[in-house]
Amino acid sequence: MDIWNQLYVWIDSMLIAPFRVFEIPILGFYFGTLILCIWCILLGELTFRLAALVNSSYMNRLRAQAVRMHNLSIKAIVLKDKDNFRACNKEANEAFGKYFFNMITQGAAFLWPVPFALGWMATRFTGVEFELLFSLPLIGNTVGFAAVLIPMYILCRIFWGKLKPHLFFFNKDPGIGLDQGEEEMIKWEDINKYRGLPERFWQNQDKPELNKR
């Protein structure tokens, strides 16, 4: 906890500066909160990209394994091999599960600056309350600084989503798309469309590999 408090002290002068741009306090508060939201978005984006870069090799292996086992399970179904289908499908689900939860963990990198910003605002604006037009159940007729930062962050996120595709560096998400050597995923629609597995998905080693499982 002391480390966080010390960090707040170090960056306090930088974060509080936008709040002092305007002489009117409420205007300065909203402007400062807006700049803080922008900092949160940029820091979250950079953290996510760093995490994706560090984790990309592991994530790509998980995705490739999931796709490979999914494809083998479909081929086993086509060959009416139930034992191999169950074994391959189980491994595919495990790999998809690991990939999914790793993606969630990686996605959390977008959000961590928000509680950090709330923690800093607590050191500056605890006790500051905004009066509501009417009283709300369980909340009352006043709200604190978090009721300003959180909705403003959501709005900034929506705007950032529209703006990001047009910005250099930010317009390309890391680790998206097939990697070199990764198999194309077989879709059930392909089976229905071609009334069987298209020839391009069959490889000479598939049947022996299925038989090993």
Structural overview:
There is one protein chain. This protein has 213 residues and is mainly alpha-helical. It contains 7 helices and 2 strands, in the order ααααββααα. The chain has helices spanning 2-16, 25-78, 82-107, 113-125, 146-163, 188-194, 206-212, and strands at 130-136, 140-143. Strands 1-2 form a two-stranded antiparallel sheet. Helix 2 (25-78) runs antiparallel to helix 3 and helix 2 (25-78) packs across helix 5 (146-163). The longest helix has 54 residues, at 25-78. The mean pLDDT is 85.
State the main characteristics.
213 residues, mainly alpha, two-stranded antiparallel sheet, 7 helices
Question: What order do the helices and strands come in, and which of them pair?
Answer:
Elements: H1 2-16, H2 25-78, H3 82-107, H4 113-125, E1 130-136, E2 140-143, H5 146-163, H6 188-194, H7 206-212
Antiparallel strand pairs: 1-2
